[in-house]
Design goal:
By secondary structure, the chain is of the alpha+beta class. Helices cover 44% and strands 19% of the residues. It contains four helices and four strands; from the N terminus they run H-E-E-H-H-E-E-H. The chain has a four-stranded antiparallel β-sheet with strand order 2-1-4-3. A hairpin with a 4-residue loop joins strand 1 and strand 2. The radius of gyration is 14 Å and the shape is globular.
Length: 135
């Protein structure tokens, strides 16, 4: 994952957000959880800046979608209270790992600014669009 790839992912996410008529914050991190690029669309919620970044970091730290982590971190779940680790994680949809064609973890995207369904849809469009453009 490099800056050029990350900027392409932001472009894809912005386009999907515009299709949905939502203003999003979109973060892309590398495989170490380091921020590579970030987009705050006009009028996107300021409170969602941190959430988007933490969704991306959470997805890369655990190499899984944040929504999946949320399912197993409920009371009684195997990862209950995990959101308090690593300086704070986000365990609801909108963070998705980015992998190459062989499945190697390259980084992750995190999206926040609307419903969790829209957040996830935009993140999914980012990953799928990037995969299509990189083949």
């Amino acid at each position: 994952m490099n800056c050029s790839c990350a900027l392409k992912i932001l472009e894809i996410g912005q386009k999907k957000s515009e299709e949905l008529k939502v203003e999003m914050n979109i973060a892309v991190v590398d495989c170490g959880g380091n921020l590579l690029s970030f987009l705050r669309m006009d009028n996107a919620w300021l409170g969602s800046v941190d959430i988007a970044i933490k969704k991306a970091k959470t997805a890369v730290f655990f190499n899984m979608n944040t929504g999946a982590i949320g399912e197993i971190s409920q009371p009684g779940g195997a990862l209950y209270c995990i959101e308090h680790s690593n300086g704070g994680l986000i365990t609801f949809p909108g963070g998705i790992p980015i992998r190459d064609a062989e499945g190697k973890l390259l980084g992750a995207v995190g999206v926040s600014g609307s419903t969790v369904e829209h957040d996830h849809n935009v993140a999914e469009a980012c990953v799928n669009g990037w995969m299509e453009s990189s083949t």
